């Protein structure tokens, strides 16, 4: 179900995200997703300053560095408004790599397992 929902999200360019960089309209990019956290800024346990510092840009690293709880990761889904469209900006961002890394890792595990099974006999 979650994959279906993610595929139906609108694509949002960096230019569009960058317009929402203040307390009245605060968007951030985390792991290739765009979140409108304007209404959350007053409730954020770390204060609104950290959100405002990352407003209108990719906050993936800042979000990861803090070590947010599972509840915080789950809560951010309610603020999800779209997917970051790195192609519109003419360059592949870190989110492209993150999007395909799990599939690549899975494929390598399968190949390694097959090779180990085949040559262990």
What's this, in brief?
By secondary structure, this protein is α+β, with helices and mostly antiparallel strands. The chain has helices at 2-7, 14-18, 48-53, 60-66, 70-75, 94-119, and strands at residues 10-12, 21-22, 25-30, 33-36, 80-84. A five-stranded mixed sheet has the order 1-5-4-3-2.
Give the topology.
Blueprint (H helix, E strand, L loop, with lengths): L1 H6 L2 E3 L1 H5 L2 E2 L2 E6 L2 E4 L11 H6 L6 H7 L3 H6 L4 E5 L9 H26 L2
Parallel strand pairs: 1-5
Antiparallel strand pairs: 2-3, 3-4, 4-5
What attributes does this structure have?
disordered N terminus, 5 strands, 5-stranded mixed sheet, 121 residues, alpha+beta
Describe this structure in words.
The chain is α+β, with helices and mostly antiparallel strands. Helices cover 46% and strands 17% of the residues. It is built from 6 helices and 5 strands; from the N terminus they run H-E-H-E-E-E-H-H-H-E-H. Strands 1-5-4-3-2 form a 5-stranded mixed sheet. A hairpin with a 2-residue loop joins strand 2 and strand 3 (25-30). It is elongated and about 65 Å long. It starts with a helix and ends with a helix. The model is unreliable at 1-5 (pLDDT under 50).
């Amino acid at each position: 179900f979650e994959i279906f929902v993610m595929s139906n999200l609108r694509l949002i360019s960096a230019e569009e995200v960058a317009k929402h960089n203040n307390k009245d309209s605060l968007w951030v990019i985390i792991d290739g997703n765009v979140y409108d956290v304007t209404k959350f800024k007053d409730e954020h346990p770390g204060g609104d300053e950290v959100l405002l510092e990352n407003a209108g840009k990719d906050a993936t690293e800042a979000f990861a560095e803090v070590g947010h709880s599972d509840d915080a990761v789950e809560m951010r889904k309610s603020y999800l408004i779209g997917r970051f469209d790195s192609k519109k900006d003419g360059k592949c961002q870190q989110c492209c790599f993150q999007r395909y890394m799990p599939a690549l890792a899975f494929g390598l595990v399968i190949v390694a397992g097959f090779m180990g099974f085949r040559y262990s006999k």
